[in-house]
Amino acid sequence: MSTPVFETHQGTSPVILAFPHTGTDVPPAIYDRLNDNGRILADTDWHIHELYDGLLPDATTVRATFHRYVIDANRDPQGVSLYPGQNTTGLVPETDFDGKPIWKDGQAPDEADIAARLRDFHAPYHAALVAEIERVRAIHGVAILYDCHSIRSHIPFLFESKLPDFNIGTDMGRTCDGSIEQATLTVVEAAEGYDSVLNGRFKGGWTTRHYGRPETGVHAIQMELAQSTHLETEAPPFAYDTAKSDRLRVHLKDILVRIEQIAPGLKR
To answer: What is the rounded average pLDDT of the residues 40-47?
Structure first.
């Protein structure tokens, strides 16, 4: 029996947590086309759904189970670059985050492959996300989408030097009410031993930019965490570090509780 494309937990909170990049499922026909480097699945948002588990018990969650090498659930379905002029990976990546090929010679996906993966993976995940946004907004008059991400702290192909621990993305304030942005920033700036940035290298991916329409009652914010904050090592086997994570979870919970408390004041 094949793995479902997404997993959903319906909660009663105005906050929705989305996990587009924690999935590691790669159908055999696609896995067979990956080269040895691609099969490491290095660009996974390792353990992020575990990191957030239970922090806001009433939150709705929507998680893609497929890997981003199948198709990236946080990319524009039309293939438009999120960061024109900068190194990045596309809708169906041809390389990993280090710029190294992930497909066997001659096995990179073609247009027909991409179209099929849009239909079978990308579209169902986003249909589930839309359904939950509409359900939550119908209950509360507002929905806050918090898009959960992580990435290695050092990737020269994508950015110079070390990435900050907390990377908040709101597309320069366009995707959510300023109170949500400020509440998040207040927590991370006060978090001892961590550094942070607002709308730095990561300004919010397609999910945040597409759904974040404050004038409609839908607010979106992205949190990109450096994986050094919660992994034993940012290399295989990418093991979860419980001590690091427990320390980090205190601040993540603070963020989620604060933005949940803001929600009633955002009703149109």
So the answer is: 97
Residue 176 has pLDDT above 80, yes or no: yes
Would you say 205 and 169 are in contact if contact means Cβ atoms under 8 Å apart?
yes
Mean pLDDT of 145-152: 96
CA-only gyration radius of the chain, Å: 18
Q: Which of 188, 263, 256, 257 is nearest to 219 (CA)?
A: 263
CA–centroid distance for 19 within its chain? 5
pTM of the entire predicted model: 0.94
Give whole-number Cα distances, 38 to 46, 101, 141, 205, in Å: 15, 7, 43, 22
Say yes or no: domain 6-265 is CATH 3.50.50.60: no
If DSSP states are collapsed to H, E and C, what string results for 115-154?
HHHHHHHHHHHHHHHHHHHHHHHHHHCCEEEEEEEEECCC
Q: What is the mean pLDDT of residues 175-192?
A: 98
State the Cα–Cα distance between residues 183 and 187, nearest whole angstrom. Answer: 7
pLDDT at residue 87, as a whole number: 44
Report residue 128 as tokens.
């589930």
Residue pair 44/21 in contact by the 8 Å Cβ criterion: yes
pLDDT at 84 exceeding the cut of 60: no
Question: C-alpha angle 50/55/58, rounded to 5°?
Answer: 110
Q: Where are the domains of the chain?
A: 6-265
